[in-house]
Amino acid sequence: xxxxxxxxxxxxxxxxxxxxxxxxxEALSCGDLGASISQCSPYATGAVGQPSPGCCSxxxxxxxxxxxxxDRKVLCNCLKQSSSAVRGVQLSNVAAxxxxxxxxxxFSPDPNFNCNS
Length: 117
Fold this sequence. Notes:
Layout: H1 2-16, H2 19-24, H3 41-44, H4 53-65, H5 69-85, H6 91-100
Helix pairs in contact: 1-5
């Protein structure tokens, strides 16, 4: 159960970076994260072979809300920080979610990725 809680935290970090803040027109923040992409946790941990339709829908929603390069940098940094902090998450699976869902994301959850590039 603790493993699932940590995974849920990662997914929440990835998911809601954009949602709450963009709706209010403010800069994005990792502190405003929620559970919009919790449906991605089975794929992120390798429990299933493909992201669910709900996961893809949430990822597409987050991507649509990240309108500026600063929004995308914040999203990238939040994803990197949470991915490295949560055990049991397969970084290759997290990195593959956008592509498998048809979302053109140019950053990676790899802790060594430069989000400023």
